[in-house]
Amino acid sequence: MAGIKTSSDFEFMLGNHAIAEGAIAAGCRFFAGYPITPANEISERMSERLPEVGGKFIQMEDELGSIYAIIGASLAGVKAMTATASAGYNYMQEGIEFAVATETPIVIVDVMRIRGAEQPTHADIMQVRWGAAGDHEMIVLAPSSVQELFDFTIEAFNLSEKYRNPVVVLSEMTISLMREKIRIPHPEEITIVNRKHPTVPPEKFFPFEAEEDGVPPMARFGEGYRVLYTINPHDKRGMITGDLEIYEKLYQRIIEKIIRNLDDIVKFKEYFIEDADIAIVTYGSEARAALEAVRMARAEGIKAGLLKLITVWPFHDALIRSLAERVKKIIVPEINIGKYYREVQRACEGITKVVSLPINRGRMHSPKEILSKIRSEM
Questions:
Q1: Pairing state between β 311-313 and 139-141
Q2: Of the given ranges (111-115, 324-328, 365-369), which has the lowest mean pLDDT?
Q3: Mind listing the pLDDT tens digit for each residue in 151-181?
Q4: pLDDT tens for residues 43-59?
């Protein structure tokens, strides 16, 4: 943990720098990226900080090179991360598909921006879940503050290592380029999770034979364990197979290792939900305005509450249905055309009414705009 920036007091830090510091605190020692705004400060910070902690930084020729570079580093046993913005994330889908199929732990930061311009959006919310080809599950965390950018980057590495799955930190231009007070804990205060390694000799090791938790141990390149990492259907030895039954079981396990652990993976915060008649369900920067709107509504005698989603994917149907059974109506504010709303609506079908509150103008909702919707729906 040497070289980690620590303080017992608050610091004033740029959001993108907080991501870099969170990555280093989590044990990240390799970063590959390609320049793109508004994520450039992450690369710049990592290029300065990684050499200080014995890590490696490399600027790649493009985003596809970046994603495969961090996959290679991870297969060699190093915690690795890349960062990009919406347009760059598009180019990484092939690599993400490979990381899912080979169960390679990596962390990707996507700083969302509107198409071709430097303004905030939630337009990538479905891309980060469904963009990669093939059956898969994604783990995606949505910070709403600079402190959460730091904290959730650590959590992203922990989840990636624990479940051998790509994890996305879904930031936004507004938060990444914001400066706020944060506290970087001392190393002994930070929980760090590392991947499991084989406990048997190479000749007895099956690289894709899962343990009880559904996750196989992971060997490092160069230690005598010969592993074929392929996107093709493969058996527990890693050998390519045309047996469709083996293929089906492989992807059932890859998906179930996430789905069966929803309660461990999915994090959220509730505000004033206990007696709420109407609830806001949202994520990212919208949670900031939503919480203020809920407090304003409460001051007017309206029993409003907020469910702030920290983990936006995987989607926790039971969590949303439980909320729907407790309130008369749910409002979903988003900085897009109303995408995540459809998932909430699906989960609440036949239980309570769900109302979309989209804004697609390159800015977040104001508290007054959300309050106005609360009033009209009540």
A1: antiparallel
A2: 111-115
A3: 999 999 999 999 999 999 999 999 999 999 9
A4: 999 999 999 999 999 99
Question: How far is the CA of 141 from the CAs of 77, 172, 175, 368, in angstroms?
Answer: 23, 12, 14, 26
Angle at 155 between CA 52 and CA 54, to 5 degrees: 15
Q: Examine the fold and report which residue of 155, 189, 223 is the final residue of a domain before the chain moves on.
A: 189
What CATH number corresponds to the domain at position 299? Answer: 3.40.50.920
Q: Supply the CATH number for residue 118's domain.
A: 3.40.50.970
Q: By C-alpha distance, which of 168, 42, 33 is closest to 99? A: 168
Domain with 361 in it: 269-377
Q: 134 to each of 6, 167, 351, how far by Cα in Å?
A: 41, 17, 32
Q: What value does the mean pLDDT take over residues 269-292? A: 98
What pLDDT does 4 receive?
58
- Does a structural domain hold residue 348? yes
Contact 205, 34 (CB under 8 A): no
In a domain, 112, yes or no: yes
> What is the number of domains present in the chain?
2
**23 contacts 31 by C-beta, under 8 angstroms:** yes
Q: Is the pLDDT of residue 17 over 80?
A: yes
Q: Are 180 and 147 in contact (CB under 8 A)?
A: yes
Read out DSSP for 33-93?
E---TTSHHHHHHHHHHGGGGT-EEEE-SSHHHHHHHHHHHHHTT--EEEEEEHHHHHHTH
pLDDT of residue 9 exceeding 70:
no
DSSP secondary-structure letter at 95? H
Q: Which helix (H) or strand (E) holds 11?
A: strand 11-14
Instruction: Give the residue-averaged pLDDT of 319-330.
Output: 98
- Could you say which of 161, 189, 217 is where a domain stops? 189
Mean pLDDT of 197-223: 94
User: Strand pairing partners for 128?
Assistant: none
- The whole-chain average pLDDT of the chain stands at 95
Going along 116-228, which residue ranges are E strands?
139-141, 167-172, 179-182
* Helix (DSSP H) and strand (DSSP E) numbers for the chain: 14, 14
